[in-house]
Design a protein that fits this description.
The complex is a heterodimer of chains A (about 375) and B (about 375). Chain A has about 375 residues and is an alpha+beta fold. Chain A folds into three domains: about 120 residues, Acyl-CoA dehydrogenase/oxidase, N-terminal domain (Butyryl-Coa Dehydrogenase, subunit A, domain 1); about 110 residues, Butyryl-CoA Dehydrogenase, subunit A, domain 2; about 140 residues, Butyryl-CoA Dehydrogenase, subunit A, domain 3 (Up-down Bundle). Chain A is built from twelve helices and ten strands. In chain A, the strands form three sheets. Chain A has a four-stranded mixed sheet. A four-stranded antiparallel sheet of chain A has the order 2-3-7-6, with helices on one face. Chain A has a two-stranded antiparallel sheet with strand order 9-10. In chain A, helix 8 packs parallel to helix 10, helix 8 packs antiparallel against helix 11 and helix 9 packs antiparallel against helix 10. The two termini of chain A are about 30 Å apart. Chain B has three domains: about 110 residues, Orthogonal Bundle (Butyryl-Coa Dehydrogenase, subunit A, domain 1); about 110 residues, Butyryl-CoA Dehydrogenase, subunit A, domain 2 (Beta Barrel), CATH 2.40.110; about 150 residues, Butyryl-CoA Dehydrogenase, subunit A, domain 3 (Up-down Bundle). Chain B has about 375 residues and is α+β, with helices and mostly antiparallel strands. At the A-B interface, helix 8, helix 9, helix 10 and helix 12 of A face helix 8, helix 9, helix 10 and helix 14 of B.
Chain lengths: ~375, ~375
């Protein structure tokens, strides 16, 4: 048993934190207000090497383990980088590029991963459909084989990065009668005839990530662009769970750290009734609850990451606990942070307001809290 | 970073669980309901059994205390019988732990072997009627006479008092020096003149724990723990901070016991043609029970590891662990009661016993409110104007 991070990881986290605070966070408030993806934020994250963290050096990455990837997400959010920009990174690196890296042929890897790792290309992944979210296996998008190609038809929705993406990993079923065994993943390049995206959605939070539908209308994809083999899509869709349940959640932990710092600072500065509000127990108790949440969420998230780094099998219970706790309790804690700031917390200039909106996504995206509880309870009932 | 228990730690946990299943769990119901005399005899027997088999010595080494091992074994005892855990802990951790950490070599040699094998039962008497979290408000005081300390005062809720052979008592040695320098822990043997045990205190839950008040009337102490006066408050603080790990063990043990019986019930009981655990109202409660037990255990182990490795964060992590695990336990038993419904409300049922037991964690050795204050202070001070 060893809960520590290495000296190298500690230094890395500090460096990322400083970079995020000085070079990225100052752009976030305005970008969030515009409600648009910010290529400037993207490029600053790219130039720091954030997008290539988990990939080997020969593919343009830096060969970081999961714990280190989580530290980066935690540090950037702690520094005040918005949840949307970090979500854009997560969808790009972990859902798109990493799936190509894990399941792609050598040619696919060489072609796609370096440009995704550098951030020159932006990637996304399309699984969810208007009629299938938690029940992803019931997707209606079809891929019909025709000679050396597949013809794809269907609509994907809530696809993070879609409006700005160069590379799309999209799931479609080659034979709906085979249900999940027919699901196949395809790599689709921007500009492919029949591929289009809708107008970006207006979202409650994570506004600096751009989200839209992906529409496939007789979109012809060469068989060379099948990812991982026909019928292997379902395995790919499920494979990233270790990554999702830690790297995509680490910004939630970072946002809670940001909120705790912000609230503790504000509680010292703000005076009411001739006392700093830190002297009121109701404020103190919120601060304590935030700290407890941070410690518990940190353990849940890094347990998933370190187990994978050590080559252990995914424990689905631990993965679900990580998601449900960071999602549900994280949102409650973000709400308490707004409460500490009172009226100011309701204003856009105060980042606790943005974190509150951004944090709701963690209980929804990538498997709702309800689905997490269903997974845990079904295992317990076995 | 590695969250896995070592092979030795896993074996320790399994062996402890097996022992508790055989020797402790079967009596958990009876010790809750039998008459007072029988309760005390049974508890003494439980502690002797644990001691003889070597379990009370777990976590003790020549150099100090291994909080990870103390947590792992503690959770299993608490899961089998919360009352036995509270009593065993008062002896093996609070009393023997204080001796281990602060005692002179002579004091350790004299008392520890018998506390470890269960032939002596220890007790730790620190709080008073008007002094719990605010220990500077205690009134018990000692006077030095002819080279020994005579203590006067009353301690009103003392775990193990009815069965204890050895007491460690917090009292003033010099009220003028203030709480930080004027309090000491005194060793008092059962046979000491002027020591008397008062009425047995009946509790809402954990009814098997022998609790009584003690009165000290010019009671002759066998010495100051560690032989240096004025260290009492600091010693209590250090011990209680580590003690948070034990209360987390109690809470996780109770929570896990509740989760297991609730899961078994949800599998066995059918309604509307389905096992009730397949309804989300029941199944999701089981999932939340799992999550909270799991996280509480991780937080306690994290804090225990911090103590073992001398991490500066150990105390605040321990406070977080106790706060989290104890509040989790009361939520868990509440969910468990909903799952059992009428069957859980029947006096003498396991569910009802756990429901009453869980509350203790939130109020003992620092209420949740006090913990929140101390946890927040550290965070707030990071940004205090200097």
């Amino acid at each position: 048993m060893d809960f520590s991070i290495t000296q190298e990881q500690k230094l890395f986290r500090e460096t990322v934190y400083r970079y995020g605070r000085d070079e990225v966070a100052p752009l976030c408030e305005e970008a969030d207000l515009r409600g648009e993806f910010s290529r400037e934020i993207w490029d600053r994250l790219a130039s720091f090497g954030i997008f290539g963290l988990p990939f080997p050096e020969e593919l343009g990455g830096s060969g970081a383990d999961l714990v280190t990837c989580c530290l980066a997400g935690e540090a950037l959010a702690h520094a005040g980088v918005d949840g949307g920009s970090l979500l854009a990174w997560g969808a790009h690196t972990y859902l798109c590029a990493h799936n190509i890296y894990d399941f792609g042929t050598d040619e696919q890897k060489k072609h796609y991963v370096p440009k995704l790792a550098s951030g020159e290309w932006i990637g996304c992944m399309g699984l969810t459909e208007p009629g299938s979210g938690s029940d992803a296996a019931s997707m209606r998008t079809t891929a019909v084989k025709k000679g050396g190609s597949y013809i794809l038809n269907g609509t994907k929705t809530f696809i993070t990065n879609a409006p700005v993406s160069d590379v799309f990993v999209v799931f479609a079923n080659v034979d709906r009668a085979r249900k999940h065994e027919g699901i196949t993943a395809f790599i689709i390049d921007k500009g492919t005839p029949g591929l289009s995206t809708s107008t970006p959605f207006h979202k409650m939070g994570c506004k600096c990530s751009s989200t839209s539908e992906v529409i496939l209308e007789d979109c012809e994809i060469p068989a060379d662009n099948v990812l991982g083999g026909e019928g292997k899509g379902w395995i790919i869709a499920l494979s990233g769970v270790e990554w999702d349940r830690c790297t995509l959640l680490s910004p939630m932990l970072g946002a809670a750290l940001f909120n705790l710092d912000a609230c503790a600072r504000y509680a010292n500065e703000r005076h009411q009734f001739n006392r700093p509000i830190r002297s009121f127990q109701a404020i103190q108790h919120r601060i304590a609850d935030m700290k407890v949440f941070i410690e518990a969420a940190r353990l849940a998230i890094y347990r998933v990451a370190s187990a994978k780094d050590r080559g252990q099998m995914l424990n689905p219970l631990q993965a679900a606990v990580s998601k449900v706790y960071a999602g549900d309790r994280g949102f409650e804690m973000a709400s308490e942070a707004v409460q500490v700031f009172g009226g100011y917390g309701f204003m856009h200039e105060y980042p606790v307001e943005r974190n509150f909106r951004d944090s709701k996504l963690a209980a929804i995206g990538g498997g709702t809290s309800d689905i997490m509880r269903m997974i845990v309870s079904r295992i317990m009932m076995m | 970073m590695d969250y896995q228990l070592s092979a030795e730690q896993m074996k320790l946990q399994q062996d402890m669980a097996a022992f508790c299943r055989e020797e402790i769990a079967p009596g958990a119901g009876v010790i809750e309901t039998c008459d007072a005399e029988d309760k005390d005899a049974r508890m003494r027997r439980n502690l002797e059994r644990l001691g003889k088999a070597g379990w009370l010595a777990i976590g003790h080494s020549r150099d100090g205390l291994d909080l990870v091992d103390i947590f792992l074994t503690g959770e299993e005892i608490a899961k089998a019988c919360g009352a036995t855990f509270v009593s065993a802990r008062a002896s093996a951790f609070l009393c023997a732990g204080a001796l281990r950490l602060f005692g002179t070599p002579g004091q350790k040699e004299r008392y520890l072997p018998k506390l470890m094998d269960g032939s002596t039962i220890g007790s730790f008497a620190y709080s008073e009627d008007q002094a719990g979290s605010d220990l500077g408000a205690i009134t018990a005081a000692a006077k030095e006479e002819d080279g020994s300390w005579l203590i006067g005062g009353t301690k009103d809720i003392v775990v193990n008092a009815p069965i204890a052979d050895l007491f460690i008592v917090l009292a003033w040695n010099d009220p003028s020096a203030g709480p930080d320098a004027g309090l000491s822990l005194f060793i008092v043997e059962k046979e000491a003149q002027g020591l008397s045990t008062g009425h047995r205190v009946e509790t809402m839950g954990l009814k098997g724990v022998p609790i009584a008040s003690i009165s000290l009337n010019g009671c002759r102490s066998s010495g100051i723990l560690g032989d240096i006066p004025g260290m009492g408050l600091d010693q209590v603080r250090r011990l209680m901070s580590m003690g948070s790990i034990g209360i987390a063990a109690l809470s996780v043990g109770i929570g896990t016991a509740c989760m297991e019986i609730s899961t078994a019930h949800a599998k066995g009981r059918k309604a509307f043609g389905r096992r009730i655990g397949m309804f989300q109202d029941v199944g999701f409660k089981l999932a939340d029970m799992f999550a909270y037990n799991d996280l509480g255990r991780m937080m306690a182990l994290r804090a225990a590891w911090a103590f073992n490795t001398g991490d500066r964060e150990a105390e605040v992590l321990a406070a977080c662990a106790k706060l989290f695990a104890s509040e989790a336990a009361t939520r868990i038993v509440n969910w468990g009661m909903q799952i059992f419904a009428g069957h859980g409300y029947i006096a003498g049922s396991d569910m009802e016993r756990l429901y009453r037991a869980a509350k203790f964690g939130e109020i003992c050795e620092g209420t949740s409110e006090m913990l929140r204050q101390s946890i927040s202070r550290q965070e707030l001070d990071r940004f205090a104007a200097v």
